[in-house]
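Example 9 (inverse folding). The structure is encoded as follows.
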């Protein structure tokens, strides 16, 4: 089954799509990437493959769809078990990684993105809360990494993918919001980790270009605020 055709439905600016692509790259899996510009329309294949949420990413393996980015990462890890492990083998370490990945998606990233979409005191509050979240993640990194380069040790793993996919957006939001989030002073370990993560062979070819993402983000913010003003 692991040798069947693999396709990823995604859109280049999406950090969640990055997760699926990094996991496949780690396992050296050849796959077709089908660009889905969800800002314009959604293909019939996407709507058929993810009829519940109608969202990217979708991994299609052997003509069967797998949806939701972290579920896809786990699926890739289990199907292509001969490659480097993505989830920790120790049950406690695995549970810890899943806990922090859920925190990133449910708590931290919404506050990060709120910096883009809000103004004044609301934007300032979102930046402060995002920074506080990074301090917590800095502490988590210290405990999980055990003095090594990544959350999972000497190579990237599940939690690295969960947080690292947001690094390009973090840079853009720092620039647009005139804030400092991941830096040598407040989060020195995450600062070093970010450089190691972006330079990894599984990551560097799928990490969005910062300038290109910056221009896209300006368009996105304008579109979101325009839609809100019409309601």
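The amino acid assigned to each position is listed next.
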């Amino acid at each position: 089954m692991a040798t069947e055709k693999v396709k990823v439905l995604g859109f280049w600016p999406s950090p969640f799509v990055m997760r699926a692509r990094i996991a496949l790259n780690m396992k050296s899996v050849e796959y077709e990437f089908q660009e889905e510009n969800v800002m314009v329309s959604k293909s019939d294949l996407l709507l058929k493959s993810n009829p519940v949420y109608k969202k990217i990413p979708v991994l299609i393996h052997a003509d069967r769809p797998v949806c939701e980015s972290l579920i896809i990462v786990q699926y890739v890890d289990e199907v292509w078990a001969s490659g480097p492990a993505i989830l920790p083998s120790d049950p406690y370490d695995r549970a810890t990684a899943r806990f922090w990945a859920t925190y990133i998606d449910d708590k931290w990233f919404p506050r990060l993105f709120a910096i883009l979409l809000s103004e004044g005191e609301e934007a300032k509050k979102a930046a402060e809360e995002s920074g506080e979240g990074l301090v917590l993640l800095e502490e988590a990194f210290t405990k999980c990494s055990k003095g090594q380069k990544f959350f999972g040790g000497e190579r990237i793993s599940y939690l690295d993918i969960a947080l690292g996919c947001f690094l390009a957006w973090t840079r853009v939001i720092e620039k647009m919001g005139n804030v400092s989030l991941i830096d040598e002073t407040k989060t020195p370990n995450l600062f070093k980790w970010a450089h190691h993560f972006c330079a990894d062979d599984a990551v560097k070819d799928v990490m969005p270009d910062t300038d290109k993402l910056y221009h896209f983000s300006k368009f996105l913010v304008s579109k979101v605020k325009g839609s809100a003003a019409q309601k």
